[in-house]
Amino acid sequence: MADSLRRLINNESCRILQEKLESWYKDYHINSCDQNLNRCCEIIEMNSMIQGQLFTILNQTAREGGHYAGVETIKSRLLPWLGTCFSSTTSGRPFETSLSLIQESIEKERQLREFASTRNHELQQLEKELNSTRLQLTLVQQDLAEAQMALEDTKTKSATTLLAAEDEIVHLKAALKASQAQEESALRNLDRLNDYEQQVQILKDEIAILGAQKSVLHSRLARSRSPSPRRCQSRSPSPLPLRSCSPGRARLTNAARHAHLVARFSEIYTQERLDAQNLLRTYIDDLEIVQRIIYVAAVESFHAAKMAFRQFKMRVRKTLSLTYSGPESLEDTVLDYIVRHEDLYDVQASVNEVIRAMNINPKISFPPEVDFIMISSLIRELCRVAFSMQTLVPPLDIAFGADGELFNESKYRRSYDSDFTAPLVVYHVWPALIENDSIIVKGEAVSKRGALWSRRSRSKSRSRSRSMSPIMSHSASPSRTLLPRSRSPSPIRSGSPSKWACSVYNASWFSH
After folding, report:
1. Choosing a second label site near 56 at 20 to 30 A (CA), which of 82, 87, 346, 456?
2. What average pLDDT values come out for the chain (512 residues) when binned by 10 residues?
3. pTM over cut 0.70
């Protein structure tokens, strides 16, 4: 049985039968009726041959099982099938069923072939993409190798450039040392030149003194030779000092420093003041309050700087008076020292003093969640300029101003929102700069009609709630609480405003 089954498999009859069926299915509509019948008969013959071989195998298998083996299988499967195949009533159904099964198998095989061809096509596409990706990877590897070579080249060039830069830095350092040595030599020569100028001035003074003494002697000699009935003996005039004090560095540079400080004061008005005003406007909507705050900051900055200058000057005078001996006066020496060492001025202490004074000023108010320290840059610049102005001869100061004073055209400019026919000042925007009671830089003020008293009452009611909190938050000294500077006297009193302001400042200084 096994040999018969092997021969059936090796005969490939089933495969040939399947191929003939597929070929007949493809050419069915093309062939003629006789051709299709011939094909069908040929397939039936081949199928009968296969069935004959299968029946032979069935017979052999039944014999190998014994006399009664396979009887139930033959009864349940073979005999009913044979009965249905040779029955007249159902003779067409097995054929149709076999034909439908054959068609389904053919369709599935066709789909399988199409699926296989599609897969083959996709596989080819994937192979092409893989080849292109490999090619791109090769190109990227080549670019990477070139980039690495370029990087190595750049590293080599950078190392060379770094060495050259280090050599250049060494040369520049040597040149810098040489230039510093030349500068020091030039400074020494300048100091010698200043000493020579001072000596020349001393000699000129001595020559002038000798000339005066000579003229006195000539006049005395002429009076002694002239005939007169009476000779009165008079004492010789007291001799003039042989040496006079020469001007120091402060007096020699006074004009240049004066021009620089005046220009710097105007620059603060045009730049730092506007920056501080814009910063304050983000927290305060009222422009008047903002401008009042900036004006009070300027006034307090000058006051704090003058106080610091007086204390600094007293310390320098006390230190130099112990060992001082020279041709210049002690005051000139002290002033020269302050001019040379203005960097020793503790400007931050003055800034803190100004902020404390502004917190207790009843004319201005500020939101409690912010502090005046936000305009400390403006206060710091004003303190520095005011301190430097005290080293001038004569010193510069700001003019005294009070709300409600008569507007002075030579002292102030009117702001753009002013009433140009109003005679009184409502409030000040920027102080005027004075020198010996003469205005050298005009300030700015606001003048309006009918707004002075209403604004005063409103500012008083607004400042009462603010004036108590800063005293608790800031540790002000007792002297500051006893002498508030913000309540200045009215300008109706006798004397110029600047002198009255100086007297107030001097009184506050001696109270300290």
Report:
1. 87
2. 67 78 85 83 84 80 70 71 59 58 76 87 92 93 93 90 89 90 88 79 71 65 54 37 48 87 94 94 91 95 96 91 76 88 93 94 79 93 96 93 90 90 91 94 90 53 39 34 34 34 36 36
3. no
